[in-house]
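Write out the 3D structure for:
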Amino acid sequence: MSFALIQKVNAEQLKPAVVDAKSGDTVRVHQKIKEGNKERIQIFEGVVIRVDRSSSHTARITVRKIASGVGVEKSFLLHSPLVEKVEIVRRSKVRRNYLSFLRNRSGKSARLKAVNFDREAVNDIRDLHAEEEAARLKEEAKAAADAKAADKAAEDAELAAKQAEVEARHAEK
């Protein structure tokens, strides 16, 4: 009974479609970042060095990039609501699932040999919920900007009225 309930909850958390990222792929991960009451999308681009449980609801990829000469690794749960989308930029030929040897290499020795692939076909995964969420965030930002512009216009009009009143007083004297 409880196992069926757990499976039902896990099935609800699954995204309808996820990009099939493999080890050696260079990916661009779009992640939602919440700072205070604002949300924004941050892009993390790097090489996938590990893929875990790709068919599960806990599917995870570990992405590594070099930032300012320092290696940075991040793990992303593919079905997390914080991960907007994963876009494959480049495919490489590798013979292992876990590319931990890249940690000890830099420069030319850390390069992987590229393989030709159909980028549009691989990345053509439409998540309607994510697109609606992005449209909602854009609308909220536009509404906030419009409200701010209206407040500014009202403030400017008030200041102009006060200025005209003061100039009228000086003209009378």
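The chain has two domains: 2-125, 127-173.
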